[in-house]
Design a protein that fits this description.
- It is a single chain.
- The protein folds into two domains: about 55 residues, no CATH class; about 120 residues, Cathepsin D, subunit A, domain 1 (Beta Barrel), CATH 2.40.70.10.
- The chain is elongated, with a radius of gyration of 21 Å.
- It is built from four helices and 16 strands.
Length: about 180
């Protein structure tokens, strides 16, 4: 005899409940959820909003919170998409230990970043290096934005580093697959 099992994940608030039908009965079990709101995930993985049914307003639950999907991790550090000057998007490492933002030479060229001066910087390994400093009109992630920022241009970097001069006005929550920026 073959028994069919179909399941959905129902998210309500900050918790979730896994609902599965087995034959004629419904079996429920708590599940882990990262998202607020009211939703279900179909068996094909599609997220379906149930906010109206649950009486949840997305604007009130998400106000002041900006999210970035983690594309991958490099050495455990999240890599996210960041938009520069309102037009170009590049992958950046979210470096919570960096005081400033560092972009690659290729990014600087694509964005036509003017070099303002050179600065001396102490690297994580203790070396002191001299690198050019430029200025960007804006850096943004899902509505979180910082304007008129100085950035260090690193000629040998493979990926840029997003630093405190961007996210210093936010509390950061790093989850399994997203980074949330909560306005203070």
């Amino acid at each position: 005899m073959k028994i069919g099992l179909t399941g959905w994940i129902l998210g309500i608030g900050s918790g979730a409940y896994l609902l599965a039908t087995l034959g004629q009965g419904v079996v429920g079990a708590p599940a882990i959820a990262q998202d607020a709101g009211c939703f279900m995930v179909t068996s094909s993985g599609q997220r379906v909003s149930l906010d109206k049914l649950c009486g949840v307003s997305r604007t009130s639950t998400q106000q002041g919170v900006h999210t970035a999907r983690i594309k991958r991790r490099e050495g455990g550090t999240p890599v996210i998409d960041v938009t520069f000057n309102g037009s170009r998007t590049f992958e950046m490492l979210l470096d919570t230990g960096a005081s400033g933002t560092l972009i690659t030479q290729q990014m600087a060229a694509a964005l036509n970043v003017p070099v303002l001066t050179n600065g001396r910087f102490v690297m994580a390994d203790g070396r002191t290096v001299v690198l050019p400093i430029g200025r960007l009109r804006s850096i943004s992630i899902d509505g979180a934005e910082a304007r008129d920022l100085q950035v260090v241009i690193a000629p040998n970097a493979a990926t840029g580093l997003l630093g405190q001069n961007f996210f210093g006005r936010y509390d950061i929550k790093i989850k399994q697959d997203v980074v949330e920026f909560h306005r203070r």
